[in-house]
Amino acid sequence: MNLPQNAILIAEFLRHPADEERGGLHVYALVRFAEPDSYAMIGIDASVRTVDRRWASGVELRTIRKRLGLTQARLAELLHTTGNNIARYERGERPIPWASMQVARSLVPTNKQGV
Length: 115
Fold this sequence. Notes:
Layout: E1 7-15, E2 26-33, E3 38-43, E4 48-50, H1 53-68, H2 72-79, H3 83-91, H4 98-106
Antiparallel strand pairs: 1-2, 2-3, 3-4
Helix pairs in contact: 1-3, 2-3
């Protein structure tokens, strides 16, 4: 899947959207754009869809946590919050404070391809 140059890959999904006319399996990439700070789902067919920011940032936080091999409790300690809050952030039930997201992103070693 070709992503725009300014897009940072967060996660890839293989899903069967029941609400689409054409049915079948579709591959989507959740990406984050630094400028402007926003998220989008990009399909293998190059379709672009906006996504709910709480959900997308929750997926990003969960992806970061799993890449680092951390439990929700340990990440909560690092972000000075509770494990329950981390769970709520990851499910998109509560917005993630900007500063907490920046700290979480800073924990991941970067390379030329992004996170």
